[in-house]
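Recap quiz, item 2
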Amino acid sequence: MKKRLASLLAVAVGVILAIPVQAQTPRYGGELVFTVPSEMPSYDGHREQTFGLIHPIAPHYNTLLRVDPNDPTGTKPIGDIAESWTVSPDQLTFTFKLRRGVTFHDGSAMTSRDVKASYDKIINPPEGVASVRKATYLVVKSVEALDDYTIRFQLKWPSGAFLQSLASPWNFIYKADILAKDMHWYEKNIMGTGPFMFVEHVKGSHWVGKKNPSYWDKGKPYLDGYRALFVRSHSAQVAAVRGERAHIQFRSFTPADKETLSNAMGNKIKFQESAWDCILMVTMNHTKKPFDDKRVRKALSLALDRWGASKTLNKIAIVQDVAGIQVPGTPWATPPEELKKLAGYWPDIDKSRAEARRLLKEAGVPEGFSFTFHNRGTPMPYEPIAIWLIDQWRQVGLNVKQQVIEAAAYYGVLRKPDAFEVAMDFQCGYIVEPDLDIYKFISNDKNHDNYGYYTDRVLDDLYEKQSRATSAAERTKYLRQFERRLLDEEVHYLMTLQWHRIIPQNAKVHGWQVTPSHYLNNQLDAVWLSQ
Amino acid sequence: MAQYILKRFLLMIPTLFGVAVLIFLLLRVVPGDVVEIRFAAQGQYSSEDVLAIERARLGLDKPIWQQFTTWMGGLLRLDFGLSMWTGAPITEEIKLRFELSLQLAIMATVVATLLAIPLGILAAIKQDTWIDYAVRVFSIAGLAMPSFWLGILMILAMLIIFKWLPPMVYTPFWVNPWENLAQLIWPALAVGYRYSAVATRMMRSSMLEVLREDYIRTARAKGLWLKLILTRHAMKNAMLPVLTVIGLEFAFLMGGLVVTEQVFNLNGLGMLFVEAIARRDYTLTQALVLIVAAVFIFVNFATDIAYAWLDPRIRYR
Amino acid sequence: MAVTKETLEDLASAQKPRPRWLQASYDFTWQRPLGAIGAVIIIVMVFIALTANWLAPYDALATDYAAMLAAPSGTHWLGTDSFGRDVLSRVIYGSRTALIVGLGASFIGATLGALIGVASAYFGGRVDLIVQRIIDVLISFPLIILALAVVAILGTGLENVILAIAIPMIPRCARVVRSSALAVREMPYVDAARAAGFTDARIVLRHMLPNVMAPYLIMLTAFLSQAILLEASLSFLGLGVQEPVAAWGLMLRGAAIEFAETAPWMAIFPGLAISLAVFAFNLFGDSLRDALDPKLRTQ
């Protein structure tokens, strides 16, 4: 009898321990206030690319799939409007079952017609309508609404990353009737199915949303509403959080801000940190001498003390980890021990720099050789990284001048192959997925986002191989080979340090999980405020 | 007098026109255009046809002279057009910011005047004494500190010492005067202090000149100087150059406070200006420049008239 | 005859005639101590800028990651910045940038402005009218907007900043100098020079320009301080001189503000340097104006 009681008790304890304990239950009410450093030009997510649109506007909409907001690696697509889906064995047909009971803010029901209209606008916009993500969906052959709550995507070729691309936070589901009348309506208006309804937008000042009482996810959202303040100056944003006029900021604060706020606010402030799916890269123009010589490019990489910088630059800039072609800590990232074998990642920096000098000499580059480094005019972290780069190159006898171009006009310069020698490039993704992340590095004739202006068929081939790999081991093999070719053999691009997100949140804010992307987890449906 | 006013008024027109032409051409010389910036700013490639569609929507594909005449035609009907960045009517974009900048300019001018006139007179009366030196040092210190630095110091002081931050959102005065003043008094003080420097100097030097006049000297010798200085005549003459300076500074405050607005996070014309130029939003930049220039030219005109009214000699120049 | 300070001086100068400029400086110092203080500060600044290579304890570009954000100490008198660069050395080298930008921009702006103003006054008539309208148009632009536009066209960097600051100053100087030049034009020796058949260029340059020295110098010193401030503002906005060049305005940007509470020395010293420089130029210019012509009105 005792034995049986004991084992029952053990089971009971085991069961209780296994249930994830919620520290507190969500409280209803309150208005979340956050600052946004940039204001959106139009309201249409299919047209814009700035987080200045996502942060205030994402709460008004749903997407077909979204990246799991509770997953800190930011890699798992889950259903938003889609309840479930099936993928055909040949990976050419994706069929989604939509939720029922989803309504737009004006009360009308959402059906597959709306999803089809929205995706048609993104994939195949009519004459006169611009869609910036059209190129991502070239793989789609057709979008069909099979019945009111089923939608099917047919692809032209098999794509393993298609689900991830459907989880894009930009693909808002719009109302088909409105699109039928006016394709440009959504540029200046809001009508979605999301957890919050639109209240007002005062230009240059703020954006207000209020709770959607008939949201399909019953019981959510918890907040009564939210307010986004457009604050351009960084110090004003920090002051806002410090003065408790704002609860949180969804992009990132700097390590200095973290120190200041911790000292000033004590336990009234919490921080969530994560590696960020953004990285600055150095692009070397392969059409300009001497950067057509891979010895010179390799020397530029060998000069950089990445491991040292990851311990020092993280105090003054929003960077931290040493990275290859994937965000460190994510499933496909190369572990540090293997990374150290690549050029520029050797643990011994003196040996590295000696080799750099030797290569430069061999390539005929004289001591004190001078070139111009173009940089984008955004303070953080472009400025500190540029200062670091110039300083590191100085250590191998290169005399580099910086030419800063204002952010808005920057890529206009990079688009002209004879306008620069070496420049800063960057990439920010919304989901960590090699197909999307390393597409940038394939040959320039296939991919116009490649500002190195090179052609490398071996690299292109490795990209295809990793994309079509059937097992994780096979894919890893090809990814490592791709990385080796890109960073060590040909040195087409130089990676600097992976960005690092530091999100300050007032201790009253709960229910928000940081992910590697500042485009994710902005619907605010699970966020709540304590007293 | 009427002829003088008319002459001055007519001169305003070619000046405004010149400003319009200059800004129109200047913007088109600057590299980059709004469409490119909109779609390519984040680094992602957009094909030429996407860009071409957008350019056509904004009328940027038409020849330059046609763009100019369309714009000028609109201006004559007081229609500034639509912003190229947001597509909203420019009057809407400017209205809110104009209110804030106007209020800030007025408040700063009041602060500057309240500082400059008494201090300037004081320094003039007590010329070359330590009071004079103290006033001059005080007013020049206001000019010497970079305005953004003063602003940052003020906000830090408020946070650290008072643990209080000014409101971040603009509320118009008639909606809630306390919120409104709580936000704007600090930049008004910072800016007003800076601008009082030039006006103080001007008040002092013109007061000195008046004090040198023979009739004043005679009166001083007789011990009547204080009374005389405060006579309308003396003050009237002394005020002329001060008025000019204050008027010109006021015009400059509309749209020139770029850095101050950034530091105090004010949604004003200065920030709008910088953003419009950065985004190559031609229509908005052109409208802003015209408005600011118009204010400036008009203030110039008004002070010229005031000058002429106060000092008849000028009318016959 | 009472023995006063003046008689003693007269006696002294009768025995040993001083050069005029020295006498003028002496008078200036006595009569206008504030201006003299300004002048002294300026001279010290110029000296520092010229001897920066010897004075500065460290290279302005040398980073030291082991000593990032270090407080002022024996090894780094004014502390280090976020890259471990010595603040004192950067302030010293920054004086060079400030003077180059300040002197360059104000000299170009004031000289070109003076030339245009004098020429406009000399030629008079329609030329004058047109030039005046153009000047009116340019003055109607707020200073910083014109500077922003120039930077947008030409790009950032030291040379372009100098131009961006000089260009808005040209019309302002032209206007002031023109009003003085109008008076000079009526002088008899100008008529005489014309009658003697001198070319216009010669009359403008040799006869009229030297006689508008007073307003020219006053505008020059006024511009100097404005140029230094404008450079600081442009650098603060990211549109001026670029890293890693040592420039005071640049040192106030970014990291200096972020670390304002934990490492205040990063921002205090460059801010002080700017304030001191502008202060000195203002004091000096102020007193120079009083000395040369108290009746002159600016702007």
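Chain C is about 70% helix and 0% strand.
Confidence is low (pLDDT under 50) at residues 295-299 of chain C.
End of item.
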